[in-house]
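Ticket #4471: structure export looks truncated?
Reporter: QA, pipeline team
Priority: medium

Steps to reproduce: submit the single chain below to the structure queue and open the exported record.
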Amino acid sequence: MNVSVHFITSLILSLFLYPYLGLYALWILVGGWLIDFDHYLWTLFRLKTLSLKKSYHYHFDRHKDKHYERDLLHLFHTGEFWLFMILSSITSYYFNQKFLFYMFTITFLGMILHLSLDFTLLFRKKHTDARAISIIAWIKRRN
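Actual output as written to the record:
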């Protein structure tokens, strides 16, 4: 998915929720747009490059190839990270940590938007095997 699509949809959702959440609504941008930082981490280790441009083109152009690389590990897109975010939200609510509760919960809301867009594209292109959805399963497949 194009980075600008994630930014624009996250910004629209943030603006929509701003009257209800105030500045906390900006956390949607973290979950909906900055979550893709893990794509950069993948290319940092896989391609051994610091170039954001090369990372962007690697991820954006790879779906055009019939023999694209499969099973990429994007840490922030995995079920384990989702579980971490959910548990962090619950824990911060339980301990009455208002700032952390809003941070984790609203960031997670942005993640839901982001991954909904990602998986819609992956299903449309029939590339559901492009990304690992579990860190544990990814490690098992590597052994």
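Status: closed, not a bug. The export was complete when the record was re-opened. Leaving a note from the reviewer for reference: The first helix runs from residue 3 to 21.
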